[in-house]
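User: Could you write out the 3D structure of this protein bound to succinic acid? I've included everything you need below.
Assistant: Certainly. Input first, then the structure.
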Amino acid sequence: MNIEADYLIIGSGVAGLFFALKAARHGSVAIVTKRERRESNTQYAQGGIAAVIDASDSVASHVEDTLAAGDGLCDRAIAEAVVAEGPEVVRELLAIGAQFNEVSPGVLSLMREGGHSHARVVHADDMTGREVTRALVRAVEALPNVTLYDHHLAVDLIVDVEGRCRGARVLDVQDGQLIEALAPVTLLATGGCGQVFLHTTNPRVASGDGVAMAWRAGANVGNMEFTQFHPTMLYDPGGPSFLVSEALRGFGAVLVNDRAGAFIDSLKTRDKVSRAIVSQMQESGAEWVYLDATIKDADETRRRFPNIYQHCLGAGVDMTKQPIPVVPAAHYMCGGVCTDEHGQTNIAGLYAAGEVAMSGFQGANRLASNSLLEGLVFARRAAGHARIEAPVGKGAKPTAGGKGVVEAAELAERRQALREMMWNEVGIVRSDQSLQLASAEAGRMAKEIEILYDGMALDAELVQLRNLATVAELIAGSARMRLESRGGHYNSDHPERDDANWQRPTLLVGHPEAH
Ligand code: FAD
Ligand code: SIN
């Protein structure tokens, strides 16, 4: 059965759910989400939401920290607007029942993280995302004009002959039916693409679908070379990927090598810390470094980081007694679908908010805990701007999909090969040669997958593999173009920042007929 609504939202993380809450005041809302509604990057966010709450803090200071982390590529006007709206969106979350830690009744507890010159991170223990998701899902479920469709995977956007987005083709993953979800306004809120790299803090849903769909539909995409690598994922081969929050470093834990020596200021921005860890590992031959929290009071550590404490204990590490082995991993996509100050893309009727978007807020490297903030602010802005002006029209019939079936093992193999290639060639330290190779390999893999896709019956895994390959091409291609090092992009053949030539976003202009 097809879906029709005034607003179609693709994705149920912080951006999608907050947009739903706002848009429901103006019309009917359909949210399609490819797994269970709570499964998203948002759900796993630990540290919190950066916002100017404390009286001794200021918008100017948060803006300066954001711009410094962004390494010359943030849009100042956007940064000022987003930061200024931070306290208000936090209040809106409180109003729908989100429970954050307090130091006394009504006074929020604020943590400090890397790159921040103030303690300004609002949090719910070390499980902020889970609490934000709980509150938002509950609020959205209570609205009569919002319908949530779990296990509905958007496959491609529907763009009519006038170039207006009319919704999306969606695969009902449980019964295998391809349907049309039609709406005059579509919001892409599909999150990031961590899964394109072998090592990532992101869950499996983060396969870059939104960027890939938007690119195929003709949207402009920018800054895809700027992958943020988080310095401290738990080193636990064979275990699930698990982040050890930067808030632990804000709390006083320090990074040390296997001789217990500090090698970097643990609160520097993530790009610098990740590179310092890589060079430590290369020097010593070790496969990890340590994050040492044993210097802190054990009871306080357990009280403030219950989730991390329990998870590490399960992996055999008592963080109050032993340093935690950690490694860097792909964490956040700083680039994405280009949007204006309202979250609007270059395709009429199509908005994007959250990690999928390149709004100008994050620049070349995101400041810690600025992502939930961006998702909230842009969801609200987009909902305030989007007008249900065009009648719903029918989209073209799906073009892809033959009858064949690809073996699951083959899909898994191709996925693994792509992720390994991206990690090895487009990882924390890149070079001209590795990027040339990656560009060619990503192109070759994407072509093969496209041929497979065209001949096969629609399959959720294949759809996502196709998107991963598209995103890999965009990342490798953008990284190859940028002949300097900045933020999350480090090329050892061009190790310096080059403002004269590169103080600008890398823009890939969308032409639907070309891809
Ligand atoms: P997501 O929360 O990722 O949601 C995307 C949604 O889209 C999901 O529901 C997904 O299933 C759905 N989806 C994707 N593709 C499709 C498709 N084709 N069809 C249908 N549905 C689709 N940021 C902070 O600011 N503070 C933190 O403390 C913090 N900690 C983090 C910890 C971890 C472990 C991770 C991984 C990230 C963390 N981040 C943090 C980053 C932050 O969580 C994300 O950037 C942010 O939550 C993204 O929100 P979003 O709504 O844009 O996307
Ligand atoms: C963390 O808690 O370290 C993650 C915070 C973020 O990604 O902003």
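The first strand starts at residue 3 and ends at 4.
User: Perfect, thank you.
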